[in-house]
Write a structure and sequence with these properties.
about 450 residues; Histone, subunit A; Serine Threonine Protein Phosphatase 5, Tetratricopeptide repeat; about 55% helix; transcription
């Protein structure tokens, strides 16, 4: 097969340098020159494609030469395509040459001088700290950032601006793209499909373990948070097991010490709070007892959030406490919602929240559930569960070191009567069944306003 580089060309170049070559050597050298030319042209085309262009420039050849560790050609730097001319020497031998652009000296002399460039200076400032952009003069203000989001970018900028100019109320906002690697996309899909697969416990446990220990999934955090929020919003009254799986995902992400969760705590609280104090969960609104383990799990996750991220979000614990208290005092809520709110108040602030927020309202809550418990209504079992968890919560006040009781010689009958008046007969009856008079005194002491 004949080479693209003729032997005559090789022989002419060698003779110009005073070297004479045999035909075999010239043929081998011509083949090698052709290989090198094809190699650098292939690399140049790759550089052109990576630049998003369809025109090959001399700078692509220069970059390809650098990538191949070859001395780049000098004197051919241009952003425009070269114009080639053709001349015939005779006998069908064409000669190609670069056409030089004609320059009018009068235009060059009379043209205005370019502006003097600014002096190069360098300053250091924080562009972003832990994903949050600080408000410093070098960074754009929030108003400027919102304006920049409306500016179209890319190859169709002129067309987009023209379309926006024809309409007074038109707003152009470019779509934001978050590019994930194929491995991360596969990890996300595999974890989601495994966690909601209740028949394969081993695969499900492995997926949660990977989510709990994998350090390189920080890019997937917004996707997991969005997925949990979407599923809880749309399926909270459809599938209880799916809600438990979503809580397992939240618990696993919180346990992963390699993930920076501070930015996602605010977005993660609403779906967890919904599973804790939602009015009705699952398809059966007439029987909410099967949802009580889910509510207990959700409250434990919120407690973990408050402990781990209470310092970075100073109002987190207080806002969660207000949400639980509001649900506890609302008689229009279901017993399941009250069940979750009692657990939430007990876990958010410990004995302090129980003594200050829960205990003064026990009698009012007992009046709300008394008729259901003393009667034979359809929700008696739910009301009894609420009373049970309420008594369990009150018994934790025995460990409160801030309340000191004194032996003042009161009889047990007087203490029983005072307890019934303070927290109601149902709760008092359950407390008195424990036979712990010290707990009774602590409850009565805590009921006295300071």
């Amino acid at each position: 097969m004949a080479s693209l580089v003729s032997i005559d060309t090789i022989r002419d170049n060698s003779e110009s340098m005073g070297v004479r070559l045999d035909d075999e050597v010239a043929q081998a050298l011509a083949s090698d020159v052709e290989y090198r030319l094809r190699q650098i042209m292939a690399a140049s085309i790759e550089v052109m494609k990576e630049s998003g262009r369809t025109t090959l420039y001399t700078k692509d050849l220069e970059m390809a030469a650098k990538l191949l560790d070859i001395d780049p050609p000098l004197g051919y730097q241009s952003n425009l395509g070269l114009r080639w001319g053709e001349a015939t020497l005779g006998a069908g031998q064409p000669l190609f040459y670069i056409e030089d652009e004609e320059v009018d000296f009068e235009k060059v002399i009379n043209a205005s001088l370019p502006k003097v460039p600014r002096e190069v200076t360098m300053t250091a400032h924080w562009t972003a700290i832990e994903g949050v952009q600080p408000q410093v003069p070098m960074n754009p203000s929030p108003a400027e950032a919102r304006m920049n989001e409306l500016v179209p970018r890319g190859a169709t900028t002129a067309h987009a601006l023209g379309a926006a100019g024809n309409s007074d109320n038109a707003t152009v906002k470019p779509a934001a793209k978050h590019i994930l690697s194929v491995e991360l996309q596969m990890f996300f899909d595999k974890v989601i499909s495994s966690v909601i697969d209740y028949e394969k416990d081993d695969l499900r446990s492995a997926a949660l373990s990977a989510l709990r220990t994998e350090p390189a999934i920080h890019q997937l955090l917004p996707y997991f948070v969005s997925y949990v929020t979407e599923r809880v919003t749309h399926d909270q009254k459809v599938d209880i097991k799916l809600m438990e799986s979503m809580m397992d995902i939240c618990d696993a992400m919180i346990d992963n010490e390699s993930l920076f969760m501070d930015l996602y705590v605010e977005k993660l609280c609403p779906p967890i709070l919904t599973c804790a104090v939602g009015k009705y969960l699952g398809p059966n609104t007439q029987d909410q007892i099967p949802t009580f383990p889910l509510r207990r799990k959700a409250v434990s996750i919120l407690r973990k959030l408050a402990i781990n991220y209470g310092e970075s979000s100073h109002t987190l614990r207080s806002r969660l406490g207000r949400s639980f208290l509001k649900r506890f005092l609302d008689n229009k809520q279901s017993y399941g919602s009250h069940y979750g709110s009692i657990l939430g108040l007990a876990n958010m602030g410990g004995t302090d929240s129980i003594r200050v927020l829960l205990l003064p309202n026990v009698k009012l809550f007992e009046e709300f559930i008394r008729d259901e418990i003393q009667g034979d209504g359809p929700r008696k079992a739910e009301a009894l569960e609420c009373l049970k968890v309420l008594v369990e919560t009150l018994t934790t006040l025995k460990t409160d070191k801030k309340v000191e009781v004194e032996e003042n010689g009161e009889s047990e009958e007087d203490l029983r009567t005072a307890l019934v008046d303070g927290i109601g007969p149902l709760a008092a009856s359950e407390i008195l069944k424990l036979g712990d008079m010290k707990l009774v005194k602590i409850l009565l002491k805590s009921l006295i306003p300071v």
